[in-house]
Amino acid sequence: MKIEEKIKNLEKILVAIWENEEFRLYEPELFEKWKGSKTLVEGPERESETETDAGHFVLRIYRNKYGYWLYKTWIPHIGYCWEEDQLYFLPEFFK
Fold first, then answer.
1. pLDDT, tens digit, for every residue of 57-93?
2. Where are the domains of the chain?
3. Which of 32, 39, 43, 76 could pair with 80 in a Cys bridge, judged by C-beta atoms 3.0 to 4.6 Å apart?
4. What is the pTM of this model?
5. Which of 95, 40, 91, 44 is nearest to 67 (CA)?
6. Residue 9: left (phi > 0), alpha (psi -120 to 50), or beta?
């Protein structure tokens, strides 16, 4: 089953966004829990629902001692310049 399908109906808590040169922190306590060692559980996998001429997101699921995390990275297509990463905490995700 694809990552998109697994997380579609799950609660996702937005922790932080890195957009071009800007960093926005939404959940400082969760961000502290993200830091440190973690294990890649699934991915990388292209997110089909965000596919445009400008680019697409790549999804990865990580695990650490606090739980599971969704990390989305924007991959621009040729001719487009945009950098974005999004970090979400997945309180109900179980592989």
1. 899 999 999 999 999 999 887 766 778 899 999 998 7
2. 3-90
3. 76
4. 0.87
5. 91
6. alpha
